[in-house]
Specification:
Blueprint (H helix, E strand, L loop, with lengths): L7 E10 L2 E6 L6 E5 L19 E8 L7 E3 L2 H13 L1
Length: 89
């Protein structure tokens, strides 16, 4: 699967580390991305649970070229910006 910057996806958290979460794209077995801890709502809101394996998230692609995994964001502000950028393209 080739990702595009600003694309939206549904993902499932498969692993969590202190720096962020590895996620698998729903419906695409073996296709992964990464959400930095600051791009998960729990970083900014104490009332939001920390990510854990099995969590379902809606994300946008921040950087499709990052290796080994593209960088995603689960922040609503980033998703809104991605939508705006796609509508202007």
């Amino acid at each position: 699967m080739t990702f595009r910057d600003h694309q939206e996806l549904d993902v499932t958290v498969v692993a969590v580390a202190p720096v962020g979460s590895k996620v698998e794209v729903d419906g695409r077995a073996g296709v992964y991305g990464f959400i930095d801890q600051v791009k998960h709502p729990s970083w900014w809101d104490a009332d939001v649970a920390q990510p854990s394996a099995g969590d379902k998230l809606h994300v946008c692609v921040l950087d499709a070229t990052r290796e080994p995994y593209p960088r995603f964001s689960a922040l609503q502000d980033d998703i809104d910006i991605a939508r705006q950028l796609r509508s202007e393209a």
